[in-house]
Amino acid sequence: HRSIGPSVHRGWEGRPAVSAPSARGEIGDTAIMEGLGDPQVLEELMRMHMPFGKYKDRLLIDLPEPYLLWFAHQGFPRGRLGQLMELALEIKRNGLEGLLAPLRSP
Predict the structure, then answer these.
(1) CA distance linking residue 103 with residue 14, whole number of Å
(2) What's 43's DSSP letter?
(3) Is there a contact between 61 and 105 (Cβ–Cβ < 8 Å)?
(4) Measured distance CA(82)–CA(63) in Å, rounded
């Protein structure tokens, strides 16, 4: 059950990010935009593997969108993993995966 009202979580650099939940379940749009504009964050997203669950050991950017949407509704994990999963979902929602192709390892 999701509360109505603003939610507070930590942004990309530990700063509080506050946003109201929307129908899409978004939180931290400011943090997401910061992540999209930071090459180091994008490289980290392309290197980090899912540490648990059905898709254990799969790159976060390669997680299926329905799986990421489930987390968006249930709550992303705390910390860096959750931030990067949220960023992966926004990249997929906006059709930006192709822009990350140059960052993929050969």
Answers:
(1) 25
(2) H
(3) no
(4) 13
